[in-house]
Inverse folding.
């Protein structure tokens, strides 16, 4: 130790260590420079306070370690920095220093807007769950928290549980579905203020099941105009402790046609008996709560394409390709079918004419005998 103090080389080592200590200290100051966060409103004047400066007139301000500040600003006589009509370029880490350059205070500035009214919508896919979500009408650009609740016209206030981030939806479990209306109350709060949005909804009118699932259709051997259609209830409808019945609507049409045929059913499967023989058909199914007449029909299930049985196949078929109506083979088959039908109609007409002739002959003979 004595050598380090007395030797020039030792002094150099100590000086080097002190220099490293100074650099590390300065680095630590800048690493932890933001001691406070201040929020301001975009387009307004924002004032930053330096803090406990001894001589406020000698305060120097820096933005992100640079002496370059937003061009629209002024420094007051007591050392405060006023940003005039602050915009997004004024955001950042501000620091104020004394005349020796020593750091006095740091502040991180964030700019945005106070909350506005929310655009709220609710989805009721079964009797036991309501999902409400919302979209900001004003982009605040600031962190926000949401407090949500609901109340029926004959019940107490209950919570609508806010989901994890992004926290713009909440869930109501076991709602009082048959009350006339409910008020959904959502309050958005950010550092610049708060705003409450109240929405009156009728859960029983918003009830809309999800589309039926696993829709399939098969032809029936020996029946060229029949299709058997199967489906299952939507998985979300099975969440109800008490299974509420659904009713279903099936629509179908030949590929290339713009006209749908519709038929209703309360269960699966459903038999189509008037399919166009030899042609692929498009099918869709939707569902509605069978008990609640005010509820909504679900969206249609994804489009399914299937073909009835034809004599050229030994098994029921489910086709997934459109029919080419310009196919010459199909036209020839149709022409042959029409020709055979015409021949049958011609034979029937000849028989009727022969019977008519016999009847006329008998009548004429009878009249002749009577006259004689």
């Amino acid at each position: 130790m004595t050598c380090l103090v007395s030797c020039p080389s030792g002094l150099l080592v100590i000086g080097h260590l002190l220099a490293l200590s100074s650099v590390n200290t300065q680095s630590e100051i800048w690493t932890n420079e933001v001691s406070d966060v201040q929020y301001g409103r975009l387009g307004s004047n924002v004032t930053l306070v330096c803090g406990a400066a001894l001589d406020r007139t000698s305060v120097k301000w820096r933005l992100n370690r640079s002496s370059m500040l937003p061009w629209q600003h002024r420094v007051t006589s007591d050392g405060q920095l006023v940003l005039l009509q602050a915009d997004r370029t004024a955001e950042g880490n501000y620091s104020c220093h004394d005349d020796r350059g020593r750091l006095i205070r740091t502040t991180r500035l964030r700019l945005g807007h106070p909350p506005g009214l929310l655009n709220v919508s609710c989805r009721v896919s079964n009797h036991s769950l309501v999902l409400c979500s919302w979209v900001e009408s004003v982009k605040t650009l600031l962190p926000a928290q949401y407090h949500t609740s609901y109340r029926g016209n004959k019940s107490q206030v209950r919570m609508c549980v806010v989901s994890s981030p992004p926290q713009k939806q909440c869930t109501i479990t076991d709602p009082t579905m048959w009350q006339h209306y409910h008020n959904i109350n959502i309050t958005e709060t950010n550092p610049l203020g708060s705003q409450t949005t109240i929405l009156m909804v009728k859960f029983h009118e918003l009830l809309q099941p999800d589309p039926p699932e696993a829709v399939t259709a098969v032809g029936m051997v020996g029946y060229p105009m029949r299709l058997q259609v199967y489906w299952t209830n939507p998985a979300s409808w099975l969440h109800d402790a008490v299974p509420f019945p659904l009713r279903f609507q099936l629509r179908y049409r030949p590929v290339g046609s713009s006209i749908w045929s519709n038929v209703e059913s309360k269960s699966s499967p459903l038999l189509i008996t008037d399919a166009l023989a030899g042609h692929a058909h498009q099918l869709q199914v939707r569902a509605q709560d069978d008990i609640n007449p005010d509820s909504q029909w679900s969206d249609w299930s994804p489009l399914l394409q299937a073909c009835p049985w034809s004599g050229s196949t030994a098994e029921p078929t489910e086709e997934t390709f459109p029919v080419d109506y310009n196919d010459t083979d199909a036209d020839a088959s149709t022409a042959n079918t029409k020709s055979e039908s015409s021949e049958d109609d011609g034979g029937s007409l000849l028989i009727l004419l022969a019977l008519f002739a016999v009847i006329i002959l008998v009548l004429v003979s009878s009249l002749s005998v009577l006259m004689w």
